[in-house]
Amino acid sequence: MKKFAFGRLVFLGATLILVGSIGFYFIPGMIAADADGNRLVNAFYCSVITLTTVGYGDICPSEDIAHGGRFFVILLSFSGLGMFCGPIMDFASSWTHQVPGGALGVAVTTVGLGVGIFTYLEGMSHVEAAYFSVVTGTTIGFGDVGPKTDAGKIATALYAVLVVNVVGALLEPATEILSQFCVDSTVPASSHLEEDSKKER
């Protein structure tokens, strides 16, 4: 099992969020002109939602984003994929095995946390809040339900960092099961290796 330097993960994640926030704040067209709330909060929110690949499409980017802004989003997105689908996902899956109830217990608790946060801060119904929590955690990010207040946007950004990794850790066993199901068990593994080595020649 890999041993992670938690401080380095936090530093790298915070740096990416800071760079993203600066870009969303200063590059024209990165945030919709009619977006409600504080611009700095919106920039932070958009940065995290982009880095976690949730991408609601609610206030960022705007329809009049320039080519420079699009290029920035491309670079930020690949950085987010590298970070959140790499070291952070590995870190999340390493600690969920040590929690009582495992990944499923953590996932249920995390969705419950989301329901509590979003019913309180955004006035969502319990069903809307559960739906929003799952849509965020699975990175579907439809954008049909979302935060409207500055406090809700900050909470959503922080929650997205948590829930995306919890759901990723939860899906790890499902990925292994589906991968095993899709492998042709009638063909010995050694014959696959022989075929691959012949193709390389």
From TrEMBL:
Gene Ontology cellular component annotations, sorted alphabetically: plasma membrane
MF terms (GO), sorted A to Z: outward rectifier potassium channel activity; potassium ion leak channel activity
Keywords per UniProt: Ion channel, Ion transport, Membrane, Transmembrane, Transmembrane helix, Transport
One Pfam family matching this protein: Ion_trans_2
Transmembrane regions listed in the UniProt entry: 9-28, 40-59, 71-89, 101-121
Membrane topology: Multi-pass membrane protein
Family note: Belongs to the two pore domain potassium channel (TC 1.A.1.8) family.
Name of this chain's protein: Potassium channel domain-containing protein
Native source species: Trieres chinensis
